[in-house]
């Protein structure tokens, strides 16, 4: 997949993450709403999400009503990057579990993705995206910013 950055075509997803950061840092309201400093030393920047941004996660489990039953969880997103996200939930989803995701920014703005659980601890569930349209993700973020 190719992307446009500063009028040039690139296939580097790190440029897309930089564009997300530039979009978000243009809005001082966003940076001050939650009192968090967005300056990070990470190569891929994680950005705090709006309090009403949620994700619906669907995954297969060996527990519950039967072997390989499907579980569905809705939870708040703490932070998001072009590579993954941290979800606030008490649900214990084992590491390496594949998860179908529906990220919901508002009633009319959302995107589907597929991810994999990296870890599950007291901070929540850390997921890495295995399939996501980063261009559409950027459009969703911009549309949500314009809704504020």
Task: Kindly describe this structure.
With 148 residues, this protein is of the alpha+beta class. It has one domain: predicted glycosyltransferase like domains (Thrombin, subunit H, Beta Barrel), CATH 2.40.10.220. 22% of the residues lie in helices and 43% in strands. The chain contains three helices and nine strands. The chain has helices at 13-25, 28-33, 134-147, and strands spanning 3-5, 8-10, 47-48, 54-61, 69-80, 84-88, 98-106, 109-121, 124-131. Strands 4-5-6-9-8-7 form a six-stranded antiparallel barrel. It has a two-stranded antiparallel sheet with strand order 1-2. The chain is globular and about 45 Å long. The protein starts with a strand and ends with a helix.
């Amino acid at each position: 997949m190719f992307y446009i950055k500063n009028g040039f075509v690139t296939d580097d997803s790190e440029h897309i993450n930089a564009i997300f950061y530039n979009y978000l840092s243009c809005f001082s309201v966003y940076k001050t709403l939650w009192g968090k400093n967005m300056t990070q030393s990470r190569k891929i920047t994680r950005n705090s999400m709006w309090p009403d941004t949620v994700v619906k996660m669907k995954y297969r489990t060996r527990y519950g009503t039967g072997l390989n039953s499907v579980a569905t969880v809705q939870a708040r997103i703490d932070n998001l990057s072009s590579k993954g996200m941290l979800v606030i939930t008490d649900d214990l989803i084992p590491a390496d579990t594949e998860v179908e995701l529906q990220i919901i920014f508002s009633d009319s703005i959302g995107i589907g993705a597929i991810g994999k659980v990296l870890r599950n601890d007291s901070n929540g569930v850390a997921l890495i995206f295995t399939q996501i349209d980063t261009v559409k993700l950027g459009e969703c973020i911009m549309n949500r910013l314009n809704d504020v």
